Amino acid sequence: MPELPEVHALAHDLDQRLRDRAITRVDLASFQALKTFDPPLSALHGTLVEGVTRHGKFLDVNASGVHLVVHLARAGWIRWRDDVPKLPAKPGGKSPLAARVILDEDADGSGFTPGLDITEAGTKKSLAIYVTHDPATVPGIARLGPDPMADDFTVEVLAGILHDAGRAQLKGVLRQQGTIAGIGNAYSDEILHAARMSPFKPASSLDEGEVATLYAALRTTLDDAVTRSTGLAASELKGEKKSHMAVHGRTGQKCPVCGDTVREVSFADSSLQYCPTCQTGGKPLADRRMSKLLK
């Protein structure tokens, strides 16, 4: 799933490609992906892109005051095309294509018609597309917590979040979008590994020093990932993310810090990875949803 660093880099890449370009039309290939009806998708036709930003994991293309907002969910992605097919995208079928954004034809004299393909792999379709005059009306954006990359996201803000979370586990607090925007399964694993904390440690149990440690790990992990990703093309971002993970997705491999074996806890629809030596005092976590440290 694309998380804050990848969505940030996608927004940067798309802003450079799309800014001041006209949108000729948007073809919808997956009706279930479009979550709004007013304004219609056709409101984007003939608009001029003013910029591309993000809200948490949401991409926001502002075109003449009409916003095309996309949440890529678990298996969504955006692919730039130097020349889109001449025929409009057709709804239905087994294609991963959800929507296609066609830009002004031959604007650079190349004879090509560039555009974007918004795709979603797999059979579980969760990608969401919204057309709105105000991104704050998108339910997922309206519920977002503070952005951890913002200047006003201070250690005091994090301390308040942890206090309010009570006995909730750190892993869940970090990836809850209504609490902190943009961190998902992968980067919550990486942050907790950098902070040397168990994913199941109760949020309110952290003392002042531990809160400072977690804050530093959060900012450093995200800052480093954003720095590495920004400027890369969309096609390079998935490989960049995977290649720099210390524990996430590395079950059975050696921890790059201590050399212990990275372990996993599996849930119904996801899993987490951690290093026992770095994070849980050398004790493995039981592989069940309400896991506690094995005695």
TrEMBL record:
GO terms for biological process: base-excision repair. Keywords: DNA damage, DNA repair, DNA-binding, Glycosidase, Hydrolase, Lyase, Metal-binding, Multifunctional enzyme, Zinc, Zinc-finger. One of its GO terms (molecular function) is DNA-(apurinic or apyrimidinic site) endonuclease activity. Residues 2-93 form the Formamidopyrimidine-DNA glycosylase catalytic domain. InterPro entries: FPG_cat, FPG_N, H2TH_FPG, Ribosomal_uS13-like_H2TH, Znf_DNA_glyclase/AP_lyase, Znf_FPG/IleRS. Residues 246-280 form the FPG-type domain. It catalyses: Hydrolysis of DNA containing ring-opened 7-methylguanine residues, releasing 2,6-diamino-4-hydroxy-5-(N-methyl)formamidopyrimidine. Its cofactor is Zn(2+). Belongs to the FPG family. This is Formamidopyrimidine-DNA glycosylase. It comes from Nocardioides daphniae. The lineage of its organism: Bacteria, Bacillati, Actinomycetota, Actinomycetes, Propionibacteriales.
